[in-house]
Amino acid sequence: MDPTIIGTFGLIAVLILLVLRVPIGFVLASVATICTFLYYAFRSGRGFDFSRGLSPTLSLIQSNAFEFLHSYSLSMVPMFIAAGHLAYHSRISTDIYSAMRVWLVRLPGGLAIASLFGCGGFSAITGSSMACASSMGRICIPEMRRWNYDPRLASSTVAMGGTLGALIPPSVLFIIYGLFTETSVSQLFLAGILPGLLTLAGFVVTVLVWVRLRPGIAPLSDETTTTRDKVRAAGLAWPALMLMVIVIGGIYGGYLTATEAAAISLMFALVFGLLSRRLDWQMIRSSFIDTATQSAALFFIAAGAKIFVSFISLTGVTHAFVDLVAAADLAPWQLLAVIALMYLVLGMFLDPLGTMLLTLPFVVPLIEGMGMDLIWFGVIVVKLLEIGLVTPPMGLNVFVIASVGGKDSDATTAFKGVARFLIVDLAVLVLLLAFPMISLVIPNSMN
Q: Where are the membrane-spanning stretches (predicted)?
């Protein structure tokens, strides 16, 4: 049987199963295993031979899964996740919002802007968009509704703020992208800083313009704050700032690798929580159980994707796809436009990690063939996945907000508010595509 036919069949089977909502880890692992077995069982132009297909299939699965799961770099994933959980339970992450709320309470739309900064700070600690949306949604949305903020503004700011976790380091998506493309995770983290800050600035401008045009959606608070209150609030944020310095400053200064930064962040969050008596043993236990659960799910999906990538490479589907695109003779900007459109469409229906792992085997060879920088392309991919987190009908962050934000934060209301922010998101995406140096200036300055 022609290997390309088997590979094409496997890819179609994956897409059909994903449409049927079968979990992506099971889809990638099972389809790759079955199709790899068929590839070896039908080789050499002879008929079907079960024993000929079994041994190499099991060997491929074992070698790929073992090699990936025993990667030194992969160890940073559970450490960053654990640091995020401990930071949440010890209120390190939420103190950022509390500080910004005191400083911005008298600014029109100040609570919404404080929510965006809180989400940005939370993201810089946890690296998870949905965890950010879930945790900050429980805090920020009720507070904004208490001051009669429009439900669309309240829910959409937290939903959009949660997406910052995809770009602002540490980012789980950057870690997985780096492992699969064999690029530096540390450089990916640094490349995400300016795009993340640019996105945050765009969101803040969106709130200011929205409130300026329609003042009624964000009534001014009559709460008064003194200079002493502001100083005290700023003091609360130092642990969060320290975690950011460990990750960003440590990596940029060349003092730490990304894995070392993850370990030190975990220890800092744990020690601070214990010394400040904000953490008890039940919280620590809960944090580590949640970390194990989330890490196991991520590892299973990633291991399944690693097996799937090997299967696709084995059958030559990737080369056939590259040749097909090359025959189309697309200009670089046309190729990027097609890839961006593909990610935006897939992001409407699939979760970000699944979208990335499904597409990387096909798009990375195209990008390398065009001579484009894989670090820059990693930022583009993560930015596109970030947009997918708030794009209907899937919009995972929006549905997370709908589940935690109270009776006024239904998905329809949140999507109406998100539409304004998406305009800014797309504008930032165009800037990143047009000016790669926005992403590369910080990592390049390390050399």
A: 12-42, 68-88, 108-132, 153-177, 189-211, 231-252, 296-321, 333-350, 357-381, 387-406, 418-442
Tokens of 32: 């790759």
**Who's near 6: CB < 8 A, 6+ residues apart?**
35, 38, 39, 42, 315
- The ranges assigned to domains in the chain are 73-299+381-445
* Structure confidence by residue, pLDDT tens digits, 400-445: 777 776 666 677 888 888 889 999 999 999 999 999 999 999 998 8
Helix (H), strand (E), coil (C) string for the chain:
CCHHHHHHHHHHHHHHHHHCCCCHHHHHHHHHHHHHHHHHHCHHHCCCCHHHHHHHHHHHHHHHHHHHHCCCHHHHHHHHHHHHHHHHHCCHHHHHHHHHHHHHCCCCCHHHHHHHHHHHHHHHHHCCHHHHHHHHHHHHHHHHHHCCCCHHHHHHHHHHHHHHHHCCCCCHHHHHHHHHHCCCHHHHHHHCHHHHHHHHHHHHHHHHHHHHHCHHHCCCCCCCCCHHHHHHHHHHCHHHHHHHHHHHHHHHCCCCCHHHHHHHHHHHHHHHHHHCCCCCHHHHHHHHHHHHHHHHHHHHHHHHHHHHHHHHHHHCHHHHHHHHHHHHCCCHHHHHHHHHHHHHHHHCCCCHHHHHHHHHHHHHHHHHHCCCCHHHHHHHHHHHHHHHCCCCCCCHHHHHHHHHCCCCCCHHHHHHHHHHHHHHHHHHHHHHHHCCHHHHHHHHHCC
CA dihedral 252, 253, 256, 258 (to 10 degrees): 0
User: Do 178 and 185 form a contact (C-beta atoms < 8 A)?
Assistant: yes
Instruction: Please indicate, yes or no, whether the overall pTM of this predicted structure exceeds 0.85.
Output: yes
Q: What's the rounded Cα separation, in Å, for the pair 190 and 383?
A: 14
Task: Evaluate the CA torsion angle 251, 304, 358, 344 in order and state its sign.
Answer: negative
For residue range 285-313, list pLDDT tens digits in order.
998 998 898 888 888 888 888 888 888 88
User: Dihedrals φ, ψ of 194, to 5°?
Assistant: -65, -45
